[in-house]
Amino acid sequence: MAHKAKGKMEQAKGKAKEAVGKATGNERMQAEGKTDQVKGKTREAAGKVEKQAEGVKDSLRGRQKP
Predict the structure, then answer these.
(1) DSSP letter assigned to residue 66
(2) CA 66 to CA 55: how far, in whole Å?
(3) What pLDDT is recorded for position 64?
(4) 3-class DSSP state for residue 24?
(5) pLDDT tens sequence for the chain (66 residues)
């Protein structure tokens, strides 16, 4: 869950950077903002995959006989 939350925060930070970059005409800041958004989306996706993997692992444990 931590990955998902961090991903959302990184996306928000990226959107803010991109907006400030556009407002000030700073192309580098705009690019950094877009990069932060992609990193955030990647981190969020990793969190979702991690959660699904834990669910599969738990379901397999439940099916094994002691």
Answers:
(1) -
(2) 19
(3) 57
(4) helix
(5) 688 889 999 999 999 999 999 999 999 999 999 999 999 999 999 888 888 888 787 777 876 555
Q: Which single residue is written with the structure tokens 């992609």?
A: 38
How far apart CA 48 and CA 3 sit, in angstroms, is 8
- Indicate the length of the chain as a whole number: 66
Structure tokens at 24: 């000030």
Q: What is the pTM of this model?
A: 0.75
Tokens 């444990």 -> residue: 61
By the 10 Å C-beta count (0-12 exposed, 13-18 middle, 19+ buried), 24 is classed as exposed
Please list, in sequence order, all residues whose beta carbon lies within 8 angstroms of the beta carbon of residue 65, skipping any fewer than 6 positions away: none
For residue 42, what are the CA distances in angstroms to 21, 27, 38, 59?
22, 23, 6, 26
